[in-house]
Amino acid sequence: MSFLKYKNYIYPLFVAISSAIIIVFGLIEATDIRGLYFLAGVYVWLLIFGCWKTCLRVLPVLVIAGGAFYGIGYLASRNHAFALAMVTRFFAVVIAVIPGMSIEPTAITRNLSQLKVPRVVTLGVLIMYSFVPVLRAEIKRVREAMKTRGAGSILNPKIFYRAFLIPLVTRIVDISDILALSIETRGFTLGKTKYTVYKKEYINVFDVLFILGIIAGVVLTVVL
User: Fold this and answer.
1) What range does the domain containing 133 cover?
2) Are 76 and 94 in contact (CB under 8 A)?
3) Mean pLDDT of 1-10
4) What is the pTM for the complete model shown?
């Protein structure tokens, strides 16, 4: 039954494979308009397979930053094809990140542990995913503290260094120690110890369709 059950996220290993395919093929085909068509198709495919929240979240970035990249590229080269290639490369990087942003860190960790990936890699991925939202929250807190104290504009180099960068770095060091201690107290070790995975990740038909759709997109882009 698990093979036929729909999930709201993609099988974690397929996420890594699809992201690698998207970014590599997108960069290879960046100088051809077909590369842009491929990325547009992948974006729609991700919308269909449950990544619509992340797709909509990054859409303003694609539009605004993509337009800026095109403008910079065209002004620098006066060449439409060169500017379009810059935009395609940017889109490839951003769209390749979407699948990974659409699943929980715990799902990735479980899948890596289930596949017997070295613990140093599993812990590295877990810390990376856990650290990003914490870093975002700390930046917001430091900015709010600056406004409360009336520190001034962050664009001022002295204010940026003393009122923003130093407090942020101090908080990051403290948070890294807390994360390391938290992982240790939860029983994660780098030694060769036996462990079990309580909730395993299983591949279902929708995961297979997803990765086959990405591969089919590559094939069609090359053939057509």
Assistant:
1) 116-185
2) no
3) 54
4) 0.71
